[in-house]
Recover the amino acids of this structure.
């Protein structure tokens, strides 16, 4: 997998490889479902030309567009990301309602409470899988 720096250092003017990979995945899913660019674009409020730019990686998809595409095609948002990127892991966590609720609660805690919760979670993980150490 390319690092963030490697992606940033790509040829000037060329779409970043992650944008291209996401675009290709959107195209693949669209074709599997027998949808035209016009039909899929209409579902998220953009033109067929804009869908073409998304699929080529020329234009970056906003999070709201990614979510709309995922819902329209009946897939998890994380499935739009290539399997070999760290980003897919984070997006799949956000697709999980329990994780989202935990993250929202965690954000409201003080720094001390966060450290205690993290320590408790690590202890729980060690107790449930003693060979993980």
């Amino acid at each position: 997998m390319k690092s963030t720096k490697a992606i940033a250092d790509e040829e000037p003017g060329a779409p970043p490889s992650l944008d291209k990979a996401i675009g290709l995945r959107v195209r693949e899913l669209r074709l599997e479902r027998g949808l035209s660019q016009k039909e899929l674009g209409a579902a998220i409020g953009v033109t067929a030309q804009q869908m073409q730019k998304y699929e080529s990686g020329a234009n970056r998809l906003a999070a709201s567009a990614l979510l709309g595409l995922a819902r329209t095609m009946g897939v998890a948002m994380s499935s739009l990301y290539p399997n070999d990127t760290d980003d897919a892991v984070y997006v799949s966590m956000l697709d999980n309602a329990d994780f989202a609720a935990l993250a929202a609660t965690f954000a409201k805690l003080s720094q001390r409470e966060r450290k205690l919760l993290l320590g408790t979670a690590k202890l729980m993980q060690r107790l449930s899988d003693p060979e993980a150490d």
